[in-house]
Amino acid sequence: MSVTSEAADLIRQRAGAEPVRLGLILGSGLGHLAHAVEGVAIPYADLPGFPHAAVSGHNPHLHVGLLNGVRVAVLGAREHYYEKGNPAAMRLALEVLRDLGARDLILTNAAGSMRPDIPPGDLMLLTDHINYSGLNPLIGEPTDARFVPMTDAHNPALRAALSDSAKAEGIDLKGGVYAWYSGPSFETPAEIRMLKLLGADAVGMSTVPEIILARFLGLRCAAISTITNMAAGMSDEQISHEHTKAMAPLGAAKLERILRHFLNTLR
User: Fold this and answer.
1) Beta bridge pairs of residue 229
2) Does 78 carry a binding-site annotation?
3) Nearest to residue 264, comparing CAs of 162, 155, 127?
4) 135-153 confidence digits (pLDDT tens)
5) What is the pTM of this model?
6) Region 5-11 average pLDDT
7) Catalytic residues
8) What is the pLDDT of residue 22?
9) In this protein, which residues make up the domain named Nucleoside phosphorylase (predicted)?
C-alpha cells in the first residue's frame, strides 16, 4: 500500500467514507476558519507522509466534515518551500485530497499588495500567477504528465463563482496576478519594482507550487489572497511575520463570508 493510500484510509476510518467535494488550503493567520467545519480534526502528525508545516500562525490539522452542508477537507496549514527547500512538499497531501474525492481546490494565502487600490484588509482573487522563484514541484517526475498546461490554472468557472459570491455578500474582490517569491526573507523594494514591471499585483511565499501540483493531479483550482501589508517600498509600515499574523484576521471575516456563500452554490 502506498503512503497516499495509507493516509487516505486512516482519514476514512476517522472521518467516514463519504467522498469529499472540495479541498481548501488555509494561509497564515487564517487557520481558525477550519474550526467552523463540523466533523473531525486530525493532526498532521497522525497522518503518514503529511507535511511538517511548523510555521507559526498555522493550524497543522486536517479538518474533514461539513461546512455549509458541503463535505470538505480543510488543510489548516501548508509546508512552504522555505522550510526545507522542497517545492513539492504538499504533493502527498494533495494526492490524499484527490483520493478522498475532491474535484476542486480553493487556496488562500497572506500576501503583500503592490496596488494602492488593494490595501491591507482587502482580498484579491488570483487571475493568474508568476513563478518568480523559478522552482517547480514537478521536477523529477518521471512521466510525461509533468508537462502540465497552465493556461487556465486558475479555473475561470471557479473564479467567476467566487466573484459572484463576493458581490452577493457586498465585498469588493478585485482580481490580480500573484507572484511567488521563495522567502523566507521578504522582498526588497527593488524586487517589488521589478515584479510590478512584470505585471504582478501581489506577492507571497506559497500557493503557486500547490496550484502546479493540483493541476498535475487533475484538480480545478482557484485562490484568494488576504492582503496583510503593502509590499516593500510601497509604504512606511514595517513588514514582519508577526505583522502578517496580526493583519490576516482583517480579511479573514470577509473571506469566510465569500467561501460560505460559494459553498451554498455547490449544493
Assistant:
1) 112
2) yes
3) 162
4) 999 999 999 999 999 999 9
5) 0.93
6) 95
7) 28, 58, 80, 82-83, 110, 205-206, 229, 241
8) 96
9) 21-263
